[in-house]
Design goal:
The complex is a heterodimer of chains A (207) and B (469). By secondary structure, chain A is α+β, with helices and mostly antiparallel strands. Chain A has one helix and 13 strands; from the N terminus they run αβββββββββββββ. Chain A has two domains: 43 residues; 150 residues, Immunoglobulin-like. In chain A, the strands form two sheets. In chain A, strands 2, 4, 6, 7, 8, 10, 11 and 13 form an eight-stranded mixed β-sheet that branches. Chain A is elongated and about 95 Å long. Chain A starts with a helix and ends with a strand. Chain B has 469 residues and is of the alpha+beta class. In chain B, strands 1, 2, 3, 4, 5, 6, 7, 8, 9, 10, 11, 12, 13 and 14 form a 14-stranded mixed β-sheet that branches. In chain B, strands 18-19-15-22 form a four-stranded mixed β-sheet, with no helix packed on it. In chain B, helix 2 packs antiparallel against helix 3.
């Protein structure tokens, strides 16, 4: 009997300590939740302030990447270039508007085509006057175009022909033609812009 | 045994106390004051936009945008019902108070997002304005949208920036977590914009000036809401002395003639009365622009909700231009070759004295700004300048074959994926309005947003892109 009482005397303080510890844990957990809500805005920057700068890669979960077999061409030689969208998150898009800048004095661009996963573009054209490859996709499906983490979706491909020697690049336009040529991705859920990053494709043309 | 029972009871009591503490802790979290339920950011102008004018005296239209973030723990974006914004600017800009000392008329708030402008105040080169929505939570705006457009007048050459004062800016909204009392939205990025006021005489290829080719150089927001131009500032209005103005938002509705089982939004036309410039030039007649136009996709068989759609008009010759907001056009009962209704408008060009070689830029409430520069124009003009010769009589220019392209529902001067997403979102819900009502996403004026509107938007996008590229 005496032993049981001793045991109880031990258990009661332990329970009390547990109560305090658990309360502390719960309170600190609530603080963490609040921190998350405040961090969100910083991660959701849209396109960079400077029209020629892109978001830091770590902030964007969608990436436009160029693909090509060779980055060195002879003058007059043709080569296929592709642009794909790599996603690192689950997202559904309402629209995808892509503007690829190039120098029409050094490249001919032809045979423009779009990826199988995309609907027929609302507008697609190689504008030699503006030095732009334009492709605007509007997704009619109510839930948009679903993309999963890890997807690599072909957006465009086209054939380039080098016209003069030198090193020249293709890049994703984030502003131009009086700020109309802005590459943008619009999310279905929020109807807002989705941050993205992109690389450039440098092609060397030799004789 | 008795002592054992007592100890057991004590333990049970301790466990109950633990549960009580947990419940209280949770409750206290929900009632904390000043906690944010989501984040938001604000910006002056669109990304990368700078406001440049060629000469002192010109107005600068400065839009302020807000973007809300996702509410933590939900898939919903935070919805905004209140914003207090303080914009600070340099000495080159001014906000001219009306006769009663207010600048409300220079703050054109987004009527789709808010219902009332509660407060404006100018102090130490800072404008504070407060807007409030009285809409139910499901109709509040979320994501990125325009809060208001402020019309600054330029008073000195030079450059500076317009910034948002973080300490004096607040945004709140509707918290989807019904158990929470947190209504405030935390402020993330507050992005200002630069401006530059030139000395006049040079070319104006700047973002806030109409591009002589048919391309709006920037989001030039010729808004359908009442926004007087520099030539028609109000001179006297009856106002209460309190800084908090009445918040009446009720608008007349037209009785419906057709039943509906779809979601119905209230009628909220951009405006019900035209703004007519009243300050006559001294010593001379005023030229008049009479014009016939058509809104793309607005046809006789379904246009039950095309009532008093106002247009903005800018007339321009060389560097001289004048803008007029909220010009009401009337249905002629005629149609153009595409079956679209032809509307007619008449505008006395107060303050504009050029009569030859003039171009007109016309923008509908949900339409791109189009350049009209020649009689019977049926496509893009594609050149600098214009060929309109204005008269003081009844000559009517017919622009109806070159319809106003529909789809700029966020009124940023472009038709793009943001507009498409907004229209599609309304279309999938088949949002309807009573006959005579107004929904900005209802591009063809059929009183319902549906696939016809998204199709019309895509067609407009294609047409405009073809002109640009």
């Amino acid at each position: 009997m005496q032993k049981k009482q001793e045991w109880l005397k031990f258990v009661i303080p332990v329970v009390a300590v547990l109560i305090i510890a658990e309360s502390v844990l719960v309170v600190s957990g609530l603080d963490k939740k609040k921190t998350v809500a405040n961090v969100v805005p910083e991660k959701k920057a849209i396109v960079s302030e400077e029209s020629d700068a892109l978001l830091p890669e770590e902030d964007a979960l969608l990436h436009f990447v160029f693909e090509t077999d060779k980055d060195t061409l002879l003058v007059g030689e043709e080569n296929k270039v592709g642009v794909s969208l790599v996603t690192e998150t689950d997202v559904s898009l309402d629209s995808l508007e892509l503007y690829v800048e190039y120098d029409p004095d050094v490249f001919d661009v032809s045979d423009l085509d779009y990826g199988d996963s995309l609907p027929k573009p609302a507008f697609m054209k190689v504008s030699e006057d503006k030095g732009l490859v334009v492709a605007n996709f509007m997704i009619s499906e109510a839930n948009g175009l679903p993309l999963a983490d890890g997807d690599v979706m072909k957006v465009l491909d086209f054939v380039v022909t080098g016209k003069q020697t030198g090193e020249y690049k293709f890049s994703i336009s984030t502003g131009g033609v009086s700020e109309g040529s802005v590459t943008m991705l619009v999310e279905n859920a929020s109807q807002g812009l989705v941050p993205f990053s992109s690389d450039e494709l440098v092609i060397r043309i030799t004789e | 045994m008795k002592k054992n029972t007592k100890s057991l009871l004590f333990i049970i009591l301790a466990v109950v106390a633990l549960m009580g503490v947990l419940a209280l802790v949770r409750q206290s979290q929900e009632t904390r004051r000043g906690a944010y339920f989501a984040g938001t950011s604000l910006r002056v102008g669109s990304p990368g936009q700078a406001f440049l004018v060629n000469s002192v005296g010109e107005d600068i239209l400065v839009p302020v945008f807000v973007e809300t973030e996702q509410v933590a723990g939900t898939s919903e974006m935070a919805k905004v019902d209140f914003a207090k914004v303080t914009l600070c600017y340099g000495d080159h800009l001014n906000l001219v108070e009306d006769a009663d000392g207010y600048v409300d008329y220079l703050v054109d708030f987004n009527h789709d997002a808010f219902d009332v402008l509660l407060f404006t105040k100018v102090e130490n080169n800072c404008l504070t304005f407060t807007v409030k929505s009285e809409k139910s939570a499901d109709r509040l705006k979320s994501g990125m949208f325009r809060v208001a457009t402020v019309t600054f007048n330029t008073i000195a050459q030079g450059s500076g920036s317009i910034n948002i004062d973080r300490d004096k800016t607040q945004v709140s909204g509707s918290n989807p977590n019904l158990g929470s009392n947190d209504m405030a939205l935390s402020l993330g990025d507050l992005v200002g914009a630069d401006y530059s006021v030139g000395g006049g005489g040079g070319p104006t290829n700047t973002p806030v000036v109409i591009n002589p080719t048919n391309t709006p150089a920037v989001p030039v927001d010729v808004s359908p809401t009442l926004r007087p131009t520099s030539t028609s500032r109000p001179t006297s209005t009856q106002r209460p002395t309190s800084t908090l103005r009445p918040t009446s938002t009720s608008r007349p509705t037209v009785p419906t003639s057709k039943p509906t089982d779809k979601p119905v939004v209230p009628t909220s036309k951009p405006t019900d009365k035209p703004v007519v410039p009243t300050d006559k030039p001294i010593g001379g007649d005023t030229p008049v622009l009479n014009f016939r136009i058509a809104f793309a996709g607005v046809k006789t068989n379904h246009a039950y909700c095309v009532v008093a759609w106002p247009v903005g008009v800018i007339v321009m010759k060389g560097e001289i231009k004048k803008s007029y907001a909220d010009v009401i056009v009337e249905n002629t009962g005629e149609v153009n070759s595409k079956g679209e209704i032809v509307f007619v408008g008449s505008l006395e060009l107060t303050g504009f004295y050029e009569t030859e070689g003039v171009a007109a830029f016309i923008k509908g409430p949900k339409h791109l700004q189009m350049k009209y520069a020649m009689e019977n124009q049926s496509g893009s003009y594609g050149k600098v300048g214009g060929e309109l010769n204005l008269t003081y009589s009844s000559k009517i220019y017919d622009f109806s074959e070159y319809s106003l392209l529909a789809g700029d529902v966020n009124r940023d001067g472009w038709i793009n994926g943001l507009d498409f997403s907004q229209v599609k979102s309304a279309a999938v819900q088949y949002i309807e309005v009573e006959t005579g009502g107004y929904i900005i996403e209802d591009l063809d004026g059929s009183c319902q947003v549906n696939t016809a509107d998204t199709t019309l938007l895509v067609k407009s996008l294609d047409e405009r892109q073809e002109e640009l590229y």
